[in-house]
Amino acid sequence: QVQLQESGPGLVKPSQTLSLTCTVSGGSITTNYYYWGWIRQPPGKGLEWIGNIAYGGSTYYSPSLKSRTSISRDTSKNQFTLQLSSVTPEDTAVYYCARRGGSLEYDYWGQGTQVTVSS
Fold it and tell me: Can you tell me the mean pLDDT for 87-101?
């Protein structure tokens, strides 16, 4: 059973960089042909895709967030990390990490972590 767990600060100041880590257990992030993604849900709004890192290390980002987003991984720890720079209060959301399988659906999700951007 694949499990994902987000970790990181719950409060970030405006203009700083938000950094979250997803720790994966029960499966390797290098296994063909899975993609590992970050998705967020602002209060009162729907889910917003942020980006993915593929099993081979390639990254894909939402066009609207691309200029501020970086996703990387540490295969030795089976973790992948989200960095979102120059945050504003509009980046306040519950942030999820998830796995996208062969069906192109996200089939395993972390429980989500609340990140609030406020001074």
Answer: 97
